[in-house]
């Protein structure tokens, strides 16, 4: 009996690219057994577009929504990293797991997978048997080709990273997975819009574990199984123009 991987994905309505990102991710997840995709829309309601998308995917999924408050929405003249992203949405996913803890696989694993990253399907088999918290390299973060834990004899002994020396866990959101039982045992473990920039991962993990207990994956953290790719604004025109194109874009 394979443990279930609960994949928590916040998704923002980036007008042109959301469906492209989610399609790429869905195609990946089609190749992975025993997963539940917890998709949280950044919206006050579950949109028909994503409802239809999920239904047609035939994946095992949970559809939620949670809107980013106005003052935390990133404006087009602001840097994308100027404000936290996806925090309340990920918390909504965590809350769902807590609320449904009786009905879910307590041997399961949680992985926070943003909608625009690139995932090698071998990653999922690496993390499926996470005892507490597992870690691995993530490509394209911190202005490096990759960030990674440095490992010796199956323990994390240091970090290869370019910024944030004060981070207790200098690791990207896509660079760790948590055993579900461990998360459920710590009710205060969640993300927060109040922590310093770049500290989300450290904030959560500090509730759960210390560095010497981390479980290195991906061949002692020497292989890249996830890339922090980013969707650029591709079209210069908005939704209005898309409607003018006589295409059923919002399928
Ligand atoms: N996101 C969101 N609301 C926002 C901005 C982003 O739900 O206002 C989601 C987005 O869809 C993605 C995750 O949060 O799954 C991280 O956002 P993004 O990819 O923009 O951040 P970055 O990769 O630059 O850290
Ligand atoms: Mn991203």
UniProtKB/TrEMBL annotation:
Enzyme Commission (EC) number: 2.4.1.135
Q: What's this protein's name? A: Galactosylgalactosylxylosylprotein 3-beta-glucuronosyltransferase
Note the site residues: Interaction with galactose moiety of substrate glycoprotein: 147
Provide the residues annotated with a glycan attachment (glycosylation): 220
The pathway to which it is assigned is: Protein modification; protein glycosylation
The residues the record assigns to binding Mn(2+) are 116
Asked if the keyword Membrane belongs to this entry, the reply reads: yes
Q: What catalytic activity does the UniProt entry give for this protein?
A: 3-O-(beta-D-galactosyl-(1->3)-beta-D-galactosyl-(1->4)-beta-D-xylosyl)-L-seryl-[protein] + UDP-alpha-D-glucuronate = 3-O-(beta-D-GlcA-(1->3)-beta-D-Gal-(1->3)-beta-D-Gal-(1->4)-beta-D-Xyl)-L-seryl-[protein] + UDP + H(+)
Question: Under the GO molecular function aspect, what terms does this record hold?
Answer: galactosylgalactosylxylosylprotein 3-beta-glucuronosyltransferase activity; metal ion binding
Its lineage reads: Eukaryota, Metazoa, Spiralia, Gnathifera, Rotifera
One Gene Ontology term, aspect cellular component: Golgi membrane
| Localization in the cell | Golgi apparatus membrane; Membrane
Q: Any keyword Glycoprotein?
A: yes
Q: Please name the source species.
A: Brachionus calyciflorus
Q: Which residues form the active site?
A: 201 (proton donor/acceptor)
The alphabetical list of record keywords is: Glycoprotein, Golgi apparatus, Manganese, Membrane, Metal-binding, Signal-anchor, Transferase, Transmembrane, Transmembrane helix
* UniProt record similarity statement: Belongs to the glycosyltransferase 43 family.
Membrane topology term reads:
Single-pass type II membrane protein
Which co-factors does it depend on?
Mn(2+)
GO process annotations (BP): carbohydrate metabolic process; chondroitin sulfate proteoglycan biosynthetic process
């Amino acid at each position: 009996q394979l443990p279930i991987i609960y994949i928590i994905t916040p998704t923002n309505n980036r007008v042109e690219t959301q469906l492209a990102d989610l399609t790429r991710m869905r195609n990946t997840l089609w190749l992975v057994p025993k997963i539940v995709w917890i998709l949280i829309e950044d919206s006050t309601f579950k949109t028909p577009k994503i409802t239809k998308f999920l239904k047609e995917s035939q994946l095992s999924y949970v559809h939620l929504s949670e809107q980013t408050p106005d003052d935390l929405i990133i404006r087009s003249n602001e840097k994308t990293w100027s404000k936290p992203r996806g925090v309340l949405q990920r918390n909504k996913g965590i809350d769902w797991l807590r609320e449904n803890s009786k009905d879910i696989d307590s041997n399961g694993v949680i992985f926070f997978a943003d909608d625009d990253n690139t995932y090698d399907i071998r990653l999922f088999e690496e993390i499926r048997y996470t005892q507490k918290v597992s870690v691995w390299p993530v490509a394209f973060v911190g202005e490096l080709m990759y960030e990674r834990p440095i490992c010796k004899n199956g323990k994390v002994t240091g970090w290869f990273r370019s910024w944030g020396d004060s981070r207790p866990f200098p690791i990207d959101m896509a660079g760790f997975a948590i055993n579900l039982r461990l998360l459920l045992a710590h009710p205060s473990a969640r993300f927060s819009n109040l922590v310093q920039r770049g500290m989300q991962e450290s904030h959560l993990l500090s509730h759960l574990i210390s560095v010497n207990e981390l479980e290195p994956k991906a061949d002692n953290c020497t292989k890249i199984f996830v890339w922090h790719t980013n969707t650029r604004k591709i079209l210069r025109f908005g939704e209005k123009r898309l409607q003018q194109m006589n295409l059923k874009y919002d399928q």
